[in-house]
Give the backbone structure.
Amino acid sequence: MALTITILFIIAYILISAEHKLQVSKSAVAMFFAGLLWILIAVDSQQLVEAHLSEAGTEIFEIIVFLLCAMTLVEILVHYKFFELVRVWLVEKKLDNTRQLWMISILAFLLSAVIDNLTTTIILTQLSRLFFKGKNILVATALVIVAANAGGAFSPIGDVTTTMLWLKGKFSSGEIIMYGFFPALTIYLIAAPLLIRQAEAGDRCEPEVEEFKLVRSEKLVIAFAFGSFTLPFIFHAFHLKPYMGLVTGLGLTWLVVDALKRGLPNHRSHFTASIENLLQKTDISSLKFFIGILLAVAALNHLGILEMVSNSLFGDAPSLGRYVLGSSVMGVLSAIVDNVPLTAAATDIVKTTDPIIWVLIALAVGTGGSILVIGSAAGVVAMGIVRELNFVNYLKIAGLPALLGYLGGIGVWYVQYLLLF
């Protein structure tokens, strides 16, 4: 039975990885195979599987609620024109190509730590199209992908894989920031100059400066939305699950929006605001994918398959060097295969309670995907926005800078570990 389940999981993995080529939804594949694996286990098993399934379901519930609330808060920021404000600010600066690329990459690194790397990539890639064309738009897009993935890797809410590990209690919010920041910054600082130097003097657009201002009530909603992202840390300090913080923050922001709709009914932002409609704009398909893949990985764990993988990858009593090597390999694998199932499997494959090792794994899986454009959700989405970007030209422009940055980040983590522990 274990062999059958493993083969089916590998088939599902291949279908998920070839989603765009086969034109099949990875969410549908993940959910179907999750159900199939558990049915086979239930038919074959001599013992009830309800307890194991219930435990997996609880963990999945926490992750999905957290992500749904975070996505909705980001949609609120979009509706209330926060990113429009960023766009106008960049236009008014009238920077040359090099400075503009640095500014966009810094924004990508910092914003992704707050609103997640995928959303940051979508927003800043669209902004980059206003300023660059030709080869420079390819450089700018690659730069945004690498910077956003690096910035999201040191924040518990910056990348879905980091969020998964945080919600599973592998490290605290303080630990991922404290021990992940300098390696992530190193990845960015090595890759960014190597990418920016490839920019050409021309290939530039000149967007017109527009008059734009947020009214006080719009600023209030934006402040509440950003403030909501701090609540998971506060709730966690009181030994409450982080998702409760975002649930509370979204509820409070929702109340503020409803109050402003009644108080300022003639203002367009408030009149057209509807949290129900914004919920429908969130990427529900991705949430379904997470549900399916996490249930499928739970099936592998139930049969002890992940225990065998752990022993082959890290050994029975892994040393620090074995952890570093194994994590680095997982990071490179994340450039080829989807990092969500890879991270989900890692939570059961890696047998350690050391949070610093888990920070390394989060960094590796979160940033290793930058080496190839198909290695991260940010890269795949960016290809959809910038049609000129493809696998080959991304590899030529960003493959080596991303790889050198990745290796540099792993190296800084290792030196940091030796100095502190």
